[in-house]
Amino acid sequence: MEVSDASDSRLARLTQWVTEDLGFGGCSIVPASVDASFRRYFRVTRGGDSYIVMDAPPDKEDSAPFLRVARLLANMDLNVPIVLARDMDRGFLLLSDLGTRQYLDELPKPGAAQRLYADALKALRVMQMADPAVARELPRYDRALLLREMELMPEWFLQRHLGLIVGGEERSMLSALFECLVQVASAQPAVFVHRDYHSRNLLVTPQDNPGILDFQDAVLGPVTYDLASLLKDCYIAWPRAQVRAWVLEYREKLLESGFSMTADSREFLRWFDLVGLQRHIKVLGIFARLFYRDGKPQYLNDLPRVLDYVRDTAASYAEAAPFAEFLAKHIDPKFDGAQRRVLT
Q1: Quick check: bond before 210 cis, omega within 30?
Q2: Are 223 and 261 in contact (CB under 8 A)?
Q3: pLDDT surpassing 50 at residue 3
Q4: In this structure, what is the dihedral angle of CA atoms 278, 181, 141, 162, given to the nearest 10 degrees?
Q5: What Cα–Cα distance (Å) separates residue 65 from each residue in 200, 215, 314?
Q6: 248 and 269 Cβ atoms separated by less than 8 Å
Q7: What is the CATH number of domain 2-96?
Q8: What integer best gives the mean pLDDT of the chain?
Q9: Strand partners, 41
Q10: What is the rounded distance in angstroms from the CA atom of residue 79 to the CA atom of residue 205?
Q11: I need a surface site. Which of 265, 276, 302, 318 has the fewest CB within 10 A?
Q12: Class of domain 103-343
């Protein structure tokens, strides 16, 4: 049996579970991926068969939401990993393997984006058009959660990464912006929200494309949230005109499918942009926290793209104009230096 050299106590227990409890003697176990949480994934190969084992330490990660959302999505006939075996006490799941072809790697290829996004947006419509009772099984993306996410930005991005302490009028400005973004999210029709629907969590598969991963944090929330996650992706960017065309086409197809919504094209775009701003404000904080708290520096390389999204949207809407001024005055002068300090 071949085992990755990334040995540790949990990997030893995972190996024992796979080889002894599941009877996969003679297999190889190698890292498949890690994510922004404490979860890790290993690829188990035996003969011509391949599987994924999720390692989710029970004291840090609850696997129950993954199992619940996997069931909900599978019942929609969407392409998600099948749970083949589980050990909830030890935090191990054996899953079907959807492959290694991430959307992120495939999208830049000539002609790929239109085809792959068409499939991803079709799958998204299936989620959003599901029986409302299904989405109501999920936690609500409520004001408290939206605000808690955005507050990561002042703490981890402004203070820890840039060395900025925000108080007084600037703190009031941020609080007013955050409240505005909460209201925009809350005004939208509430649907099934994957919450991390982007190019690193979608796999190109030969059938039923895309394969959908990392859905355990799904919530009941705003209709444009996953659309913004996908089309204003933190890991790949597209021209604004192309994004706008995809958004408006998506709105039309939702309506053609019978989705109930009164927002016209302009209002839908506003929803999309401002919910995207909420997400990217959150991500600035999360990516900085992943470095300073969790020792994962790779996400800092994507901060410039995320900040570009924030800067562009803040400059486009009157309600975010004070934040745009704050960006230009305080964030932009410090950002490049902060990046060099930690990445070189």
Answers
A1: yes
A2: yes
A3: no
A4: 40
A5: 20, 9, 34
A6: yes
A7: 3.30.200.20
A8: 94
A9: 33, 54
A10: 9
A11: 318
A12: alpha beta
